[in-house]
From TrEMBL:
A Pfam match: TPR_PEP5_VPS11
Phylogenetic lineage: Eukaryota, Metazoa, Chordata, Tunicata, Ascidiacea
Topology term for the membrane: Peripheral membrane protein
Membrane recorded as keyword: yes
Organism in which the protein naturally occurs: Ciona intestinalis (Transparent sea squirt)
Subcellular location per the Swiss-Prot or TrEMBL entry: Late endosome membrane
Keywords tagged on the record: Membrane, Metal-binding, Zinc, Zinc-finger
One of the record's GO molecular function terms: zinc ion binding
Name of the protein in question: Uncharacterized protein
The organism's place on the tree of life at top rank: Eukaryota
InterPro entries from the UniProt entry: CHCR_PEP5_VPS11
GO CC field: late endosome membrane
Length: 116
């Protein structure tokens, strides 16, 4: 394929290749479209949210705080990833570990052994 974005994304969607859609946006550093892809197809493939978090957590040159917060809030709300899995991810952007959403989830689940 010769980099015809609408055509590539159409084919991925038609074939239900949601991982490929996400990867396409990650490869092109389209951060807003990464989150939008998760919103659009995350019910069909919840692992998209975890992959997005990993992607944003590893970004060093770009301020991804807003995206990290959105992804973490969705993951926590739908209980998609245990907090210790997020905490044990290496390397991880300090913004993830310092996130209010992440810390509230860790405190609620790991310290008290309950959901918040």
């Amino acid at each position: 394929m010769s980099n015809f974005r609408p055509g590539i994304l159409f084919l991925y969607e038609a074939c239900e290749l949601y991982q490929q859609i996400l990867r396409y946006h990650m490869d092109h550093e389209s951060h807003g479209l990464v989150v939008e892809t998760c919103r659009s197809y995350g019910e069909k493939d919840p692992t998209l949210w975890q992959q997005a978090l990993t992607y944003f957590a590893r970004q060093r040159d770009v301020d991804c705080r807003q995206h990290i917060t959105q992804v973490l809030a969705h993951i926590e709300k739908h209980n998609l990833v245990p907090p210790y899995c997020i905490y044990n991810s290496k390397p991880i952007h300090p913004e993830v570990l310092g996130s209010r959403c992440f810390n509230a989830t860790i405190v609620g689940e790991c310290v008290f052994g309950q959901d918040i």
